[in-house]
Structure prediction request, 768 residues.
Amino acid sequence: MDETLLMIPGPTRVAPRVLKAMSENIVNHRSAIFGQILSETTQIMSDVFRTNNQSYLITGSGTAAMEAALVNILEKGDKVLNIVGGKFGQRFMQITEAHRGTSLPLEVEWGHAVNPDEVGFLLEEHDDIKAVTVVHNETSTGVVNPIQQLGKILRGYDALYVVDTVSSLGGDHVEVDDYGIDICVTGSQKCLAAPPGMAGITLSKDAWDVVNKTDSASYYLNLKKYRKSGDAEPPETPYTPSVSLMYAMHEALKVIVEEGLKNRVNRHKLAAEATRNGIKALNLELFPKEEVSSTTVTAVRMPEGVTDGEFRGTMRKKYRVELAGGQDHLKGNIFRIGHMGNITHRELITTFSAMEMTLRELGFEVEMGEGVAAIADTYLPEDL
Amino acid sequence: MDETLLMIPGPTRVAPRVLKAMSENIVNHRSAIFGQILSETTQIMSDVFRTNNQSYLITGSGTAAMEAALVNILEKGDKVLNIVGGKFGQRFMQITEAHRGTSLPLEVEWGHAVNPDEVGFLLEEHDDIKAVTVVHNETSTGVVNPIQQLGKILRGYDALYVVDTVSSLGGDHVEVDDYGIDICVTGSQKCLAAPPGMAGITLSKDAWDVVNKTDSASYYLNLKKYRKSGDAEPPETPYTPSVSLMYAMHEALKVIVEEGLKNRVNRHKLAAEATRNGIKALNLELFPKEEVSSTTVTAVRMPEGVTDGEFRGTMRKKYRVELAGGQDHLKGNIFRIGHMGNITHRELITTFSAMEMTLRELGFEVEMGEGVAAIADTYLPEDL
Prediction:
């Protein structure tokens, strides 16, 4: 249908073997054969989350899992500290409010990471914070938040630690148990490189204690039902899942095991470094500071005199490389290069070559080949 | 993975061309190319619902759409008349209660259809009923409810008419506009013969008027967001949809257009008649009365002296035909034959032949070939 190279922060390119898995015949979702696939898939999901706790897969987007994380722990008026530094941080706040929680937003300037000390101050100031939400990798701004340091601070408080790793899991370091994360959510279509439509979630014992005492205001996202069905023999989901997407997740997670999680994260780190080097070589400007730049998506200021429509339009129509624009107030001001999932130097070279041609065509001064060379240099062994 | 013939009431067998559609490359869900697929798919969805109103596709199970139907119209304490004659009727009641609505259950004995006059009496008695829910085809009991007659009665009242056609749409007569249905929901994996994981919903103007005044207690299932994104150019979904399942729905709905909706319903009616004739020829007993028997799933009393485990186990393991058991208090007492989606005489012949062998093997007196002959007789032209 479309041979465009997707360099957006999700959905990402899906490997042929994963796409192929979806063409297998549909089986009964309440059968031993499906139970086997489900339990293997959730087991690897837990391994990738780096947790000893059970994981659950929800047919729905990452947003469904974000909502599941909050709707199962919130009663009316419960206070939630929402760290808001971009569109997805805002989403946690909106979900808090949709479920009659009281949001205590910690506003962080878009393009910056949260300062963990500020979270500590707020936890000292308010002794009734039930949960703290943070987006590990803020896809909208290309910023990575310090979830390990936040976890250390949160250890001293009762508040549940809720982390969105939708666009980081499998592409950056996430250690659910080690960081003390109570509820962690992710999506299929980002660094896990499965097709969109499935979301993962895992909960600590502390989180389950709260869930057990809470009357979930959602039926479809009621995690007690997911646990009950997951514990059945054979394991099931409470409602009919997307059987085909489960095949795809099973295969995509097997790919991650084969590559090795550490290797995969390192591959993402290298791609991010190469991307930043390429951007600098073209005299373009990163949107966030380099030290808080994401490992999976790079946000870049739109060059002077070039419009978003011309730039991304030419990239897409002429060179068939799709980049993402800015969202909300960043629309037109930044563009974003997703380098998550199955990304190697090849896709980056293609992207930067197309960017060089596009920029030159649009009258922006660019030395042809400089971006591509910077990518290659980053991938070459250091001792050459 | 599995070559078992699925004769269960969903998921149903998916045609190779529909499975194949899912192996297409993933595209950006916020692109013109996806917008085109989305708008074509929702247009055919509306055609199949037989409505001039817009349809929406939700990544999730039929239950997600059932919840969407109620969570967007209910405020705390709102009264809902839930017609409960099986597991899915109960589900509407549970969803009503999960969202702090007040359920007024109209209990119908499992295996029977609702009497529309009783609904009329209740609507006269209670002038504050905000919505009436009914499951068109109660999958758990094999009963079809009279949604056309119910619609006539509901025309005289303000209550919204909410109908679950998850296991009937595309297999039995559903005329959303003509019957005066305000909110109609369906699932991908039943008569539409697409893979599980996507649900359809459509709303009348009256329903939207209520939705507009209601603060949805769900974020993921907030229909105002679906409408806003659906009206965008290009049309979108509010959250990342399952792109692959959208390809599959697009293809499965195209198959329905090619067959013709009337032909498809007639094919289902013939399959249901053949199944009932086969059951009677084997001296087995239908669970519901014949006049309220479903067009898409036939529920049969478990024969005397035969256990569910032996019967369905032998069918599955030895003959590789999968039937469904009973649910809740019907567990062990009935079995169910799904004949929805891509079902012709071939699958029924295979199923009945396997049933004859299984029953004989388990000591139940059965004349070999009688069931199969009854199927064939039903399919033969009448004038032969």
